[in-house]
Amino acid sequence: MSNPHVLILPSWYPTGYFPMRGTFFREQAQALKEAGCQVGVIYPDFRSLRSINRGKLLTTRFQRTYRIEDGIPTYRVCGWNVISARLRGWLWVNLVKSMWRAYVAQWGRPDILHAHSVLWGGVAARQLSMQTGLPYVITEHSSGFARSMIRVWQEPFIEDAFTHASATIAVSGALARALSSYLPKGGSDIEIIPNMVDVSYFSLSPVRASDGPFRFLTVAFLKKNKGIDTLLRAFTQAFRERDDVGLEIGGDGPERRALERLVQELGIHDRVKFLGYLHREEVKTAMWRAHAFVLPSYVETFGVVLIEAMATGLPVIATYSGGPEEIVTPQTGILVKPGNVSALARALWHVKENREAFPAETIRTNVVQKYSKTAVVTRLLALYQNILTHQDQ
Question: How high is the pLDDT of residue 77?
């Protein structure tokens, strides 16, 4: 059987104003295309009403757009979030259904639908499946299940979409356990297929990080769940009297101002640098500049940035927050309890003093074996073929 025609329905996706959002969905779509699949994407792009102004009203008016993006036909609707969450879900699903007709008219009927996250890509896939008879797969990524953020009114949509999916994928065992109550059989048949990293892009640095100040790096959307305040306090506790250790913080978000004030209060402003929002190339450059990577989150369904850092050979310090437990091993880094300042401080100190115990080549090899395009796409293609074979019988 030839590789299938796959239509991707991502619940979030890179945009011109937020290019790093959902990049792992786009990279997986590109990897499937490189493996010989015909691939398309349909995505309703809803902007926050908080960003509305006259200029954006002229360019964002629920118009449909179609472009070939990195070789993949991509259909979008450029609109605004409506105030009602229920109405937003209904509108999102119906916009997908309307763009489906345009997609099929130009590119033909796909063999299988692959939704990323049940709200609302998975619900849209269920609706299209009812309409067309096509099988669909849902890969869940959302931390909302682990953080008990699912609303009661959303549960029937979630359960219906998962129940009728040909396969449900979770990106980690921790997320699979959080999903179990929403699936038939208690989720015993959930597939665990991790996110992937482009190991040809995130590679070992061509130049060894400088032997100057030891540099820790974190990259995250700066919100409370990411635990950056814990990292700042732990950094202060571990290196209060040291001026040969620095910390770089990549990313932006609602907590940035508060974190900048905390840096001043802790007296570490001369050793902590806020890099702001980083494009992909800037993330890689920051990793090449660093000696170790830290992700102190309270909840992580996976942790793509961890495998990106590890692909560049960096040892990682992360938390028992879900996904990282399945990524970080004693050979690649250290895990600590989330929110524990003293434990994180000890981990920072240990990595600083024992950097040679974490060889870059060993760390990278671990990632290539488990999270490369080849490793992940091979499993996806096997899953698709199994579904399509059983459908034909």
Answer: 85
Residues 59 and 218: their CA atoms lie apart, in Å, by 35
What DSSP assignment string belongs to 112-173? Answer: EEEEESIIIIIHHHHHHHHHH---EEEEE--TTTTTT---GGGHHHHHHHHHH-SEEEESSH
Which band of pLDDT confidence, cut at 50, 70 and 90, is reported for residue 45?
confident
Q: Which of 84-93, 130-139, 208-217 has the highest mean pLDDT?
A: 130-139
> Considering the domain 5-196+372-392, what is its CATH architecture?
3-Layer(aba) Sandwich (3.40)
Q: What is the DSSP secondary structure assignment for residue 82, as one 8-state letter?
A: -
Output the six-digit token pair for 95: 């916009």
**Whether the Cβ atoms of residue 62 and residue 77 lie closer than 8 Å to each other:** yes
Average pLDDT, the chain: 92
Please tell me whether the overall predicted TM-score, pTM, comes out greater than 0.85 for this model: yes
286 forms beta bridges with none
Q: Tell me whether the CATH fold assigned to 5-196+372-392 matches the one assigned to 214-371.
A: yes
- Token code pair at residue 52: 């509305």
User: Between 189 and 47, whose confidence is greater?
Assistant: 189
